[in-house]
Amino acid sequence: MQTPKDILQAIGNTSLVQLQRVVPAGCGKIYAKLEWENPTGSMKDRVALAMIDRAMDDGRLRPGDTVVEYTGGSTGTSLAFICAAKGIPIHLVSSDAFSQEKRDHMAALGAKLTLVPSEGGLSTKKLFLQMIKVAEDLGKSPHTYWSDQLNNMDSFPGYFPLGEEIWTQTGGRVDAFVQCVGTSASSRGVATVLKRHNSKTKIVAVEPAESAILQGGPPGAHRIEGIGIGFAPPLWEPSLVDEIISIKTNDAEEMARRLAKEEALFAGTSSGANLLAAIQVAKRLGPNSIVVTLMVDSGLKYLSTDVYKRK
Known about the structure:
By secondary structure, this protein is of the alpha/beta class. Helices cover 34% and strands 16% of the residues. It starts with 15 loop residues before the first strand and ends in a 16-residue tail after the last strand.
């Protein structure tokens, strides 16, 4: 085993485990990729490294520049982590709609934070647009680089290695891949790889039922952090997606709690939504199928939220 030379080499190569107890009888096999094994406890370490490295390589991010981004917390934490490792200053725009743990983690990694107030702690289209506008304005200052994750074409290639890992770990037998949509970079990146290996692999996108805009519904408020921004993200590529499933916030939260108690998998709300959608897919595909989804991030990021806070 080769010893990593620095912390950034610890990104990726996460475990894939089969779920045992929450999957109903008659379902296909459901496997979860444990993305909390990345250094900040989130899959977003992958995309943050790709965006920063490519911007440094082509000169968009110059020595002495400050990175600027809006964030629901996980991407911001990952960007702050990458910037700390590389000695780059970073200014992040977030909100009280997202967990205190995420905000504290970003600050601990050296990020300067600007917080945009939410409406009752809910994720809404208005909130996302406000955060984006603040980040865009900050990015116009001299010696700044706005990574602009919603439009950044470096983002989804950052997930190509994740797709290759899934293909290898399943022995090329993945029948369906299920993932929530925020910027859509992760689902697009993984789908690109899996479809390249096997065009018949089913790609399923997941969104909040309260804001099912990808299915033509109106934007709405929800509590599934990091997804459901209230409009189709610019990186959304519908030609790669075979199905879209909507999941209610309360159901996703309950499944996250079940995952912890019944599978010993401690994850966030979007992971609960992923699993509920994966069960629907695995039921239809039958007992011989293999469905892969992501444990997007660690439940440690949500201890202060209604998902896990003791009443």
